[in-house]
Design goal:
The chain is α/β, with parallel strands linked by helices. The protein has a single domain, classed as Metallo-dependent phosphatases (Purple Acid Phosphatase, chain A, domain 2). The protein has seven helices and 16 strands.
Length: 312
């Protein structure tokens, strides 16, 4: 009898699967699997906590690359800083052959970072890459949206036949942050080009929180600037907000399978704080109010209720 009681107690104390730590992505063979981090370069325990979760989740979800939203290094940028604020935290992932693709933030030294080989910028402030047929990523320098960059973007988008066109850069075109808010200057320059050429998804950082924006003119916007920095209480719920979190550090996992993009946002403890999907609805004629390749939310997001407080 005592043996049975002991076994029952042992079973009761064994760790059980936690719903918040389950993979919510389909993890389909042949899909495009990637992670998203932003505002990372501190080298402190918060960055390390997210880096450890990135490595842990890759055992369940074998993402192939990571896109970085800028502010890749805060403070010094000598070789020791690159190691402390990038090489060491992400060593397990880098050692597994995962590639990182960086965009430049306002705290970054462009001359140094665009020539840092592990950032895969190949000496450029802005660039694109194609992980698979039908999907192309565009890294922009939102610090200086000059004519040279706009001309390059117009040319690249015109030549791209990809159904999924994903932009990533530092300053969010739409944001409910009280410290920064929407980057209206950059939006005025970039959004018309996005709409004309059917951009579907825009990923940004800069704001030290997570916010999923309601689709704007058919484009899905995500802010993930809390992968090492956090500005608690800075996210004021607005008409833009579908969901947000300014109380936990976070990163994202994403998967593109056919016409659907799935996302899962995870905190520093490995708990899922947001998940859902968006779907391409096919080509349409672009207008000033709609992109040529719009997306619409599909899966019911979880949690259902937005998290940030109401603005006063």
């Amino acid at each position: 009898m005592r043996r049975l009681v002991f076994i029952a107690v042992l079973i009761a104390t064994l760790p059980l699967p936690i719903a918040g730590q389950e993979l919510r992505l389909p993890n389909k063979p042949g899909s495009v699997k990637f992670a998203v981090i932003g505002d990372t370069g501190t080298g402190d325990r918060n960055q390390v906590a997210i880096a450890n979760e990135l490595a842990s989740w890759r055992t369940r979800y074998p993402y192939e690359f990571v896109v970085m939203m800028g502010d890749n290094l805060y403070g010094g940028e000598n070789p020791k800083d690159f190691d402390k604020k990038f090489g060491t935290p992400y060593k397990p992932i880098l050692g597994a052959g995962v590639k990182f693709y960086a965009a430049l933030g306002n705290h970054d030294d462009a001359a140094l970072q665009r020539n840092y080989k592990p950032f895969n910028m190949n000496g450029e402030r802005f660039y694109s890459f194609k992980p698979q047929g039908g999907v192309r990523f565009f890294a922009l320098d939102s610090n200086y949206v000059d004519k040279a960059q706009l001309d390059w973007l117009e040319k690249e988008l015109t030549a791209s036949g990809s159904e999924w066109k994903i932009m990533f850069f530092h300053h969010p075109l739409y944001s409910s942050g009280e410290t920064h808010g929407s980057a209206e200057l950059q939006r005025g320059l970039l959004e018309p080009v996005f709409l004309k050429h059917g951009v579907n998804v825009v990923l940004s950082g800069h704001e030290h929180f997570y916010e999923r924006i309601k689709p704007q003119k058919g484009i899905a916007y995500f802010i993930i600037g809390s992968s090492a920095k956090l500005r608690k209480g800075d996210l004021a719920k607005s008409e833009l907000t579908a969901y947000g979190n300014d109380s936990e550090y976070a990163f994202m996992l994403m998967e593109i399978a056919g016409d659907e993009l799935f996302f899962q946002t995870i905190n520093q403890s490995g708990k899922t704080i947001d998940t859902g999907s968006i779907k391409r609805v096919g080509k349409v004629d672009p207008t000033p109010a709609r992109t040529a390749q719009p997306v619409v939310p599909q899966a019911k997001p979880s949690p259902v209720q937005p998290g940030p407080r109401q603005s006063k």
